Sequence to fold (378 residues):
Amino acid sequence: MTNPPSAPRILILGVGSSGVQAVAHMCRQNPTLDAVVIDTDKKVLEACGMEKIIHVGSAVTNGFSAGGDVELGRQSIEKDSSNIRNQLRQADLLVVIAGLGGGTGSGALPVITRIAREAGTLILCMVTMPFAFEGKPVASKAEGALKKLRTHADAIIRIPNETLVDRADSELPAEQVFSRSQEVMQDAVFALWRMLSQNGIYGLDFACLQIMLRNCDGFCHFASADADGVGRGDAVAKGILSHRLLKKGKVLEIASGLIVGLVGGPNLKLSEIETVMNQVQEKIPTDTWVNFGVMIDPAFENRLTAIVLIAEQWKEPLVDDAGRQMGFTFNRQLSAEQGQLPLETAGKGRFTHVDPTILDNQDLDVPTYIRRDIKLPR
Ligand SMILES: Nc1nc2c(ncn2[C@@H]2O[C@H](COP(=O)(O)OP(=O)(O)OP(=O)(O)O)[C@@H](O)[C@H]2O)c(=O)[nH]1
Ligand SMILES: [Mg+2]
Fold:
């Protein structure tokens, strides 16, 4: 699954122990995926079987996990940020995968997304939110990280662990339930790769994705449905409209942007494409930005798969890294123009009384984008 030369480079980053495991699982299914895993926990990295691993924070956690401490997770990644920056150099799209609620993933993700934004990379985060049984402190750590992520990520797909289980599932082996989030993320990653790197008969490309993600300024939702044989168009549409991850179709009603990718065999009919698209279109607001693509894959024979990526509107104000509210307002009309992050100079905090680093009459302690008055796009 390496990206063809003309295709955008998609880099998958697994962060923190569950992020490492999810990405290692994907790479076992498809070893050519371009992926790197990052953790504070040496044991997890050594056991994951991945080729590209980055161990962070050896001076902070001594090779152990961050033990649920978000601040230790943040410090660990800050100390090794140059390594991360190097990895991001050639990526057009960064897909960051983590479980929020622990120390490493929750502390590192806001830093990683900041670095990626500075590099101009399009950033999609896919994160699981804790089970209710993990308790309130874990939930609030995850929510805190999510708020910070919003500053720099172009889009975030949240997968609440709770939505992956029905009460009727409580007798299932835990391992089976836990691995469901890995499967959801894997479906989304493989679908994205297919959409962006294969030529369809009706195309979707990186620019479509970029326009939607850069303008959506909100949470995204992903779902896929699959059917075989006669009536497959109708079955796929019903699968999407009743999908658990789309809150049984309710998410479609608040979509501000929607991408639909259909993959079928050589006998895919126009009427089947219409069946899926019409049923989905009936559920979304009339001003939703919609784009779709169709791909023919001989291996699909009588099968039809639909994947949908839905951008939801943000309802809450943006906050910066320090948790302060920012004045960015969302323009619902999707356009190819980028907005700007309304960043202001923050105080130097505990470094207020430290001598500045002056070179060529410039204070290097002031971030470059402020010194040079560079507007950061979002
Ligand atoms: N669905 C699912 N979620 C998991 C699994 N393991 C962990 N999580 C979730 O991910 C969150 C973070 O856990 P980890 O990834 O282990 O934490 P970490 O980022 O490595 O942080 P530290 O271990 O504190 O350094 C947990 O609170 C869980 O909600 C798993 O196997 N399946
Ligand atoms: Mg861990």
